[in-house]
Amino acid sequence: MTTSDRPDAAAGDRPADSSSTPGVETATAARDGATGLEQTIARLLTIGTYAAVALFAIGSGLLLAAGGSPLDGGPRLDIGRVGADLGELRFDGFLWLGLLIVIATPAARVGVSFIGYLRAGERSMALVAALILGIISLSVALAIGTEG
């Protein structure tokens, strides 16, 4: 007797022998693919969060060690300088990189979702993800174009 044949079986219980139930293999494979995508996205968000927090902590420590205050304001973002600032252990490089990671992580999540949806054959969800990436790209381009 399978789990679903029992009168006391819960509505969400699956049969113990899924090979005898038509369509279960396909549903299980789709669920496993979604789980893999969800785990990849969770890892991306976790790594992005930890990296940003670590960079903020280092940058804040360097700022305080230099006698600065977070209320003083800071230099403008110069993406070309971030690498040099990190190499020179300047607080602003760490803080800017942390902020850039905070901003880029959600967009990277959409990019990973787009790839996952394409691999899973979910064209409509891939289209939605592509449109979201397009809107993000357009807003970044407009922000850079209107910066004065």
What is the compact description of this entry?
The chain is mostly helical. It is built from four helices and no strands. The chain has helices spanning 24-65, 79-87, 91-120, 123-146.
Question: What's the topology here?
Answer:
Layout: H1 24-65, H2 79-87, H3 91-120, H4 123-146
Helix pairs in contact: 1-3, 2-3, 3-4
The total count of helices amounts to 4
| Amount of helix | over 70%
Structural class: mainly alpha
Strand-residue proportion: under 5%
Number of strands: 0
Low-confidence stretches: none
* Overall structural domain count: 1
What is the CA-CA span between the terminal residues?
72 Å
Main beta sheet strand tally, sense and closure: none
Shape: elongated
Radius of gyration: 23 Å
Mean pLDDT: 83
Order of helices and strands: HHHH
List keywords for this structure.
148 residues; 0% strand; mainly alpha; single chain; 4 helices
What does the model show?
With 148 residues, the chain is mainly alpha-helical. The protein has one domain. It has 4 helices and no strands. Helix 3 runs antiparallel to helix 4. The longest helix has 42 residues. The chain is elongated and about 55 Å long. The mean pLDDT is 83.
